[in-house]
Each structure stands twice: as structure tokens, then as C-alpha cells.
Amino acid sequence: MEKPIQPGLLRTFRYFTGVAMGYYAVLVFFATFQIGEGSRPALMQLYLNLWTNTALSVYLSWNWLQRKLRGWYLPIALLAATIVPIFSNLLYLVDPGVKNLSLMVARSWLLFPILLVPLVLIAWQYDMRLVLAFTVLTAIVELAALYPVLGQISYDTLPMLGLPLIRAFAFGIVGHIVTHLIETQQAQSKALLRANEKLIRHAETLEQLAVSRERNRLARELHDTLAHTLSGQAVNLEAIKLMITPEQTEVHEMLDQALESTRSGLRETRRALKDLRSLPLQDLGLALAIRNLARDAESRAGFELELEINEPLPTFPPDAEQSIFRIAQESLENIVRHASASRVKLHLGVEQGRLQMTIQDDGVGVDLENLNMDDRLGLQGMQERAAETNAAFEVYSQPRQGMLIRLSIEAQNDQSIDL
Predict the structure, then answer these.
(1) Torsion angle of alpha carbons 114, 116, 119, 124, nearest 10°?
(2) Where are the domains of the chain?
(3) What is residue 177's predicted lDDT score, i.e. its pLDDT?
(4) pLDDT at 312 over 60
(5) What pLDDT is attached to residue 385?
(6) CATH architecture entry for 280-410
(7) How far apart (Å, rounded) are the C-alpha atoms in residues 173 and 183?
(8) Which of 71, 281, 332, 372 is least surrounded by Cβ atoms within 10 Å, i.e. has the fewest?
(9) DSSP three-state, residue 104
């Protein structure tokens, strides 16, 4: 996967090439009149740097090339900005006056600010390994060119040969500082992003809780008013019907219609109240909702329950939590209705960055190899819910050896951030 170019890096690179292009253009203008001979190494060096920075400025402003070259776009520009200054600076070695060590030292140090920019850009975009490769290679190239000219290692030549090494050491320090700052900034950005995501989920949870409480309040109000009123009305109509003589058929028909309308309204009211009341998952949270499911199944089926829920649990999107809850609900309901189990073990917790839920019973079990999944809609529904949330779902069972259901889903929040 291609690493995206860091924001602001290309703009900084273009700014550097533009400044360098102007600088070398001024030098070329003055050198042309003062030196006068276009073949002189110094003038060749100036022209080479001028045209290189001009080409780089155009290259870095050409968006089509960036789309075409993709991951090679920036390395090519950095390679040109590194190699050309090094070799152009070595052109002075062909000058007969090269044995002037003071001149050689001065020209060698001219490379430091020129190569510092590519170094910082490499440290900004990549890592310390490439920074070290840059510093080592630039030092080796210059040493390989200088040693044949100097001819020997002596007290007089040692300072010259040591310059590339000193510069490499300085480059390593600068590169380490830049990479450390970039890594710190990226780590802080990721932590801030995770914190913002957790804050958003927290706000969504609070909103859902507020809605859940309001729905429950409305459900209680309607139950205490409308449902009780309709129930009382039905009782009154039944009493009136008993007080009327059988001969008053029209009145009986009217009362029957009124009773049917009242009972129908009561049924619809109860259905609406059931839909209005929030789910246990919304009201209690995943851990407590599953705990209550298990305790309720234990009380209904009479098996021995071994319950292990390791909190805190990760925060999941509502649809993922709903799937986990429904799979637990369906598993426990199958145990209650079909397993005839005497012992059930439920585990829920985080292991190796994933939420793990296992539900195991010692009941009658099933033969999975010969099981028709079309007839077992419960297992099929659990598999479909797990697939919707990219969770791993496994079922193990043998006749008279119980059943084990395992659900594994990647935890999506960072517990290290506490808001």
C-alpha cells in the first residue's frame, strides 16, 4: 500500500526549489561575466544546479506526473535533489587548483545546507532507516571521490576526509530529531482521532439513553392512562351487557361491537406500548443485558449457570451490539427449549483485542454433519447476524455431548483513552 505524501511536504519542496533556482540564476549571471569561459568547472556546476532546480520546480508542480508515477513520484524528486548537488560539487576536482585544501573545505561545507533540505524531507515522509541510508551514501560518495585526489591519509588531508563523516553525523542527529517529532505528531493525531471517535460514541450512547428513558416514560404514562381506561371501559361494557335482557338484541349487538372495538383498541395499545418500550440492551448496556438474559434462562430451565463477564467491555456500534445480544438470546433460548441441560457456562470478555463470547451446555446436543440448517432457523439466524458484523461464528456439537457456540468480533475502541 502506497504511503500518502505528508501534508505540506510538496509545498515546502517546491518553495525550496524555487528559492534555489533564483539563487543559482543570480550566480550564473555574475559568473558568466566574471569567469567568461563556459567550460570552467565552477560555471558548469552553477548551470547544472540551475537547470536541476528549474526541472524539479516544474516536476513538483505537475499534478499529472504525480498521478502517473504514484509511489515513485516523491523518491525520484528526492533522488535528483540529492545526487545532482553532490556530483556537481565534485566537478571542482577537475580544476588544477584543487590541491588548495582551504578551497576544498569551503566547497565541501557548501553541500551541508543544500543536502539538509532533502534530508529533512526524507525524515518527514519516511523513517530513520532511510535517513541513515541517506547520510551513509552521501558520505561514501564524497569520500570515494576525494581520496584518489588527496592520495593519502595524513595530518594535512585528515580534516578534508573527515568532513563528510562530520556532516553525516550532523545529518543523523537532524534526521533523528525530525523523525521523532513526526512520529510523535502522528501518534498524537491518532490518539486524538480515537478520542474523538470515543467521544462521538459516548455522545451517541447518551442520546440513545435519553431517548430510551423518554420512550419508557411515555410507555408508562400510556399504560397508566389509556390502557387502564380501555380495560375499565371493557369491564363496564361487560357489566352493562349482563344487565340487559336477552330480548334487547339490537342493544346486545351494539354492546358487542363496542366491546370488540374496545378490546381491539386495548390490543393495539399494548402492542404499541411493547414497541415503544426500549430494549434491555439500550436500557442496560451489553454486559448487564446479557447477564440478565442468562439469569432469566437459568430461572426458567433450572440448570446450573457458570457466568463469567469480564468488564469493561469495548464499545460497539448499535447494530453490532444488537447482533451480539440477539445471538446470546437465541443461544440461551435454544438451551431452555431443546437442550435439557443441567449445566451452562457463559463467558464474555476481551482476549487479544477481540470480544469473545462462548456459550456451552451439557445437553442433548445435535449431529451437525447431518443437520438440515433450513430446519434450524435459530442457528441460521445467528450465522447471518454474525456475518453482518464481520464476526467469527463457530458451533461445535455432538449427540448427547452438548453444544458450544463461540462468537469472536474485533474490538473497535481503544481502552487506553479515558474520557
Answers:
(1) -120
(2) 9-197, 199-276, 280-410
(3) 93
(4) yes
(5) 87
(6) 2-Layer Sandwich (3.30)
(7) 15
(8) 372
(9) helix
